[in-house]
């Protein structure tokens, strides 16, 4: 008897799924927009090849100094800052030594320095992480990580990361 009363009660067997459909629709729209934002930020970056000097580019800001991090032929990670070189190997170059080298270079500039960090293409994060730590611990006011960005053709399809060629010049 109680079971029959419950079955006959208004709304007992009804379930309103309108709200669930609305939430799923909004979630789908949100994920589509999120995908577009991620695609717009995913541009190809061309990292410079080995650099053999530590000189700021023409048009550099005042107080900007370059710190190059590269792998030598024997596998040693070498840091070049102004006229100083330091090999980062276990037992040889430490973060503290690199920090001291950076601070000495900043003192020569008599003020705040902007460190322009340039790294070889083949380095992985674990190899240049001590360099970033040393810059963070130094007296540098700011750090820039340099990279060359490939030119992108706006008319090309989304997701095409291949370099564009000049069709008129061929």
TrEMBL record:
InterPro entries linked: ExbD
Subcellular location: Cell membrane
Main location: membrane
Pfam families referenced in this protein's UniProt entry, alphabetically: ExbD
A single BP term in Gene Ontology: protein transport
Native source organism of the sequence: Sedimentisphaera salicampi
A single GO molecular function term of this UniProt record: transmembrane transporter activity
Residue numbers spanned by region Disordered: 150-170
Transmembrane regions listed in the UniProt entry: 12-34
Assigned keywords, A-Z: Cell membrane, Membrane, Protein transport, Transmembrane, Transmembrane helix, Transport
Keyword flag Cell cycle: no
Composition bias type Polar residues, residue spans: 157-170
Name recorded for this polypeptide: Biopolymer transport protein ExbD/TolR
GO cellular component terms attached to this protein's record: plasma membrane
Assigned protein family: Belongs to the ExbD/TolR family.
Membrane topology reported for the UniProt record: Single-pass membrane protein; Single-pass type II membrane protein
């Amino acid at each position: 008897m109680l079971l029959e009363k419950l079955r006959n009660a208004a709304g007992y067997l009804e379930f309103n799924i309108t709200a669930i459909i609305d939430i799923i629709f909004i979630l789908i729209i949100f994920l589509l927009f999120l995908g577009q934002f991620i695609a717009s930020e995913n541009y190809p970056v061309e990292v410079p090849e080995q650099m053999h000097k530590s000189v700021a580019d023409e048009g550099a800001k005042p107080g900007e100094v370059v710190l190059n991090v590269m792998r030598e032929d024997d596998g040693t990670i070498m840091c070049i800052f102004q006229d100083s070189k330091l090999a980062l190997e276990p037992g040889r170059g430490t973060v503290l030594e690199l920090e001291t080298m950076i601070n000495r270079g900043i003192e020569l500039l008599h003020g705040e320095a902007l460190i322009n960090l340039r790294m070889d293409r083949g380095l992985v994060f674990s190899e240049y992480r001590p360099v970033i730590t040393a810059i963070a611990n130094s007296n540098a006011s700011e750090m820039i990580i340099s990279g060359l960005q490939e030119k992108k053709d706006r008319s090309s399809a989304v997701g095409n990361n291949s370099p564009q060629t000049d069709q008129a010049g061929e």
